[in-house]
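Lab notes, practical 5.
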Amino acid sequence: MRLEKCWFCSSTVYPGHGIQFVRNDAKIFRFCRSKCHKNFKMKRNPRKVKWTKAYRRLHCKDMTQDSTFEFERKRNRPERYDRNVAENTLKAIKKIDKVRVDREARHHALRMKGKKAKEQREAAKELEQSIHMVKAPAVLQQEPSLTLPKIKVKVSQQQSEENHAMEE
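Output from the prediction step:
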């Protein structure tokens, strides 16, 4: 079972899924879904379409250079089956996947580090510009017309006991 990569968005194409397009010069293009195929037919550049892997790598949204990507490359040379090698490979795949996930999380955290401070600066700026719209709590106590009216509800003793019994 061979897992192919979509030519347009670089996602995985599983056997029996997607569309395969063969050009006149015998170049094969595989697409994961009709969305990618249609964008290819419209001659769109994957590096300019925001949801593709190529765009994300080009604009530093995803990791681009990492040693864990070496293991994902396609190898066409057949290898003789050896049980020990296969077992060690499967163990290594799990470790490599864990390392990649940790590095991606660190990359994402570094990207988002300055965002919180930026949001606080924007909120402070907006507050400075529209401070006249905000009423102080002391003003609300002096003028009760600015607050919402409080509604009094009578609750019988029996209803309050039923609610208490339902909570337990």
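Observations recorded by the TA: The chain is about 45% helix and 5% strand. The mean pLDDT is 82.
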